Amino acid sequence: MKDIEYGIFMPVGSGGWIPSGNIPELDASYRYNLEVARDSERFGFDFTLSQAVWRGYGGVSKHFDVNLESLITSAGLAQATTEIGVWSTVNTALLHPAVAAKMVATQSEISNGRTGLNIVAGGNRMSEKQMGLGLDLDNAAKYRRAGEWVEIVKALWTSSSVDYEGEFFTLEDCQSDPKPVGGVPQMICAATSDTGLAFVAKNLDGVLFEGTSRDSVISIGQRARSISQANGDALKTYCVFMIIPGDTDADAQRRIDHYNEGRDLVAITNMAREWGAVSHDPTAYNPDNESWADSTAISTGTVAGSTESIAEQLADMIEHADVDGAVFIMPDFKDDLAALGEEIMPMLVKGGFGRIAAA
């Protein structure tokens, strides 16, 4: 049996993960996320993960316009659960490492060591711009800043006092107590480029990625494994999967077609700007032009079909991409989560992909 970790990417942003006017209502409330966390724990998932978004993408769907703060949300979920891991996300441009170190250590005490941290090294251009941060930094500089950030928080979690003078941060006799329960929490970062994967392999414990197809999942997973081996072979790989279950494969496809019919091109455009896929100059891009005629609301790697079909597809990609974990998103975090926890996960574990907790 391959010991796979399974997580749930929490719906802390309004609209969930699909920029469409035809999706189930997800209000991004703490009450809704509390229900999701408790259900995820009951189904035996290993951890929850919440994103950090400071500016939404608008449009008719108001995609991510409402977004809970990640660290505070996870602290609340930690208090309300007993076993499941509660992982947060921090943008290294927006929170000083000494402040983050104290907050994560406090969260670790609340959860009795169940915390983990996902850092954002680059990206979030629109969020940073609205705050006047990072405007003169290219991606290489952002990775250097993130490297310093990680070095500092680790030092504060393990040392009584830290002196540090770097390109981006300066600390003098900086102290931070309490320390995290059980030592330095696991830290991950999203990356797909060789530069990003090398940064994560050198500085962190795991890489988070998503693929747009079976081939891309396998390609990124294998590249990550190769880069890990070149850097001590300690890097864990976590792949994000969008699951869309149906009674049959055709039923699942009808769901996809329905979401795509309501696609929100304004939100999709703003998401593309955020991640640098199109120009930030509003006059340089028109969401009605022909180049985006085939844009879909579902852009993350999607695994759809009957529960049996989804289990088979997941097992195939987990095996051939050689990943250590799978993180799930879905249109509906009630019925879809139940299908995942009650039907799909037991099939994966029975097939040799899982942990006893997820059986």
From TrEMBL:
Going by the UniProt record, its keywords in alphabetical order are: Flavoprotein, FMN, Monooxygenase, Oxidoreductase
Q: Name one GO molecular function term.
A: alkanesulfonate monooxygenase activity
**Cleaved signal peptide residues:** none
Query: Where does the Luciferase-like domain lie?
Result: 5-318
Name the Gene Ontology biological process terms.
Answer: alkanesulfonate catabolic process
Against Gene3D superfamilies, the record matches this protein to: Luciferase-like domain
Can you say what this protein is called?
LLM class flavin-dependent oxidoreductase
Organism of derivation = Herbiconiux oxytropis
